[in-house]
Fold Thioredoxin family protein.
Amino acid sequence: MKIEILGTGCAKCKTLEEVVKQAVAKVGGFHQVEKVEDIMKIMEYNVVSTPGLVIDGVVKSTGKVPTVDEVVKMIEEAQK
């Protein structure tokens, strides 16, 4: 599973990166986590408010930092 964190380096983007790492540790298994800071690539997802969270190419969250449990739920739903 590929998890992308969209953001140009703001505080919320860094917080989301930590939340995602915690969620991945909680879920277990192999997940590729990538931080995307290229604004053109972020725009390809039609995300205008960062941070953004993309799981396997699907935008799951924008403009806020979900909790660890919310990210765990998103990962589990994407695995189905």
Q: What stands out?
A: Strands lie at 2-6, 32-36, 52-55, 58-62.
